Amino acid sequence: MDFELTEEQRAFADTARAFAQAELAPHAAEWDAAGTFPRAAIAKAGELGFCGLYAPENAGGLALPRLDATLVFEEMAAVDPSTTAFITIHNMATWMLGTWATDAVRGHWGPLLASGEKLASYCLTEPGAGSDAASLKTRAERDGDEYVINGSKAFISGAGATDVLVLMARTGGPDSGAGGISAFAVPADTPGIHYGKKEEKMGWNSQPTRTISFDNARIPADHLLGAEGEGFKIAMKGLDGGRINIATCSVGAAQGALQAAQQYLQDRKQFGKTLASFQALQFKLADMATELVAARQMVRLAAAKLDAGARDASTYCAMAKRFATDAGFTVVNEALQLHGGYGYIREYPLERLLRDARVHQILEGTNEIMRVIIARRMLEADAPQAIR
Q1: For residues 145 and 159, what is the distance between their CA atoms, to the nearest angstrom?
Q2: Among residues 119, 144, 139, 165, which one has the least CA distance to residue 220?
Q3: 78, 259 in Cβ contact below 8 A?
Q4: 126 is an active site residue
Q5: Which of 121, 345, 346, 386 has its CA 20 to 30 A from that of 133?
Q6: Do residues 110 and 122 make contact, with C-beta atoms less than 8 angstroms apart?
Q7: Is the pTM of this model over 0.85?
Q8: In this predicted model, what pLDDT tens digit does every residue of 3-57 receive, in sequence order?
Q9: Of 199, 228, 364, 368, catalytic
Q10: What is the Cα–Cα distance from 282 to 275, expressed in whole angstroms?
Q11: What DSSP line would sit under 103-138, residue for residue?
């Protein structure tokens, strides 16, 4: 068991850190305030391979392990969790398309997505199907050489600004449950697709969020991903990686906040001393660092389990997502507290990091659902020995 990164992994992290400082840090606050979706910056990330980190090579991706991808995402999220989170969602959708699309669809969309020239959204959640994703109602009916799609999706990141939708829709009967869901690659400009208003959100303001409605939208039958009825399985496999990605964004946000807090304690003086000289604040910084390191190692453990195809990888991904998003938010909140009133104003990055990190406890499966997944496995007879 080796916790040290390889030279290649360190190079990926260094490249991501340099990119974040050059392309994200100078603009993140402005993008947040103006609600700007920075397609040009995302395209530059694509030039470095960051838009197809773990997508297969035959789809134009780098086919990196999930563990290596976390190193890239953490460095970017330390500066701009919102933009980074969209890039992680795009990576998930690109991997799903690259893994399950037909050769023709993969050949067309894969290189465009992996390069960042085109962008993808992941469409699972519906107005009436959030945590209970298997109850989704959007339908895709086969009609000759096409599928006809009707229904709606909600809380879709990038909607209205992306080029392809990785969509989950019901092809089975109304009561077919998870086994009646299929996955599709849907060009975002397909006639019959309509986008709702841009949602006003607490955070994640550098990426648009909208509802999407489908009114007899027709796509070629070869845009099916995998086989009919495999969509829910594909969605869940995507979400295992997605949960690691979002957990990593929380770790990154916490790392950025910890760095800011450490510097602030060294610079700020009260009662004739730097804040760093007060033991109570030293202890707070120590606890923040400890929680952050624990969260980071849990995320990397889950990524290693997923890379290895371990039987319990989904359980570890749920554990990492639950722990890292909770711990990450706490670290950012404590860093804001250490800044006092300055942490609450937009001149400092803390309030933006806090707003962006909060949603991580909700999406890709709420942390309550993560507990359901973990508890279900832990109630099996072998779990106390198997999950360690």
Answers
A1: 27
A2: 144
A3: yes
A4: no
A5: 386
A6: no
A7: yes
A8: 899 999 999 999 999 999 999 999 999 999 999 999 999 999 999 999 999 999 9
A9: 364
A10: 9
A11: HHHHHHHHHHHHTTSS-EEEE--BTTBSS-GGG---
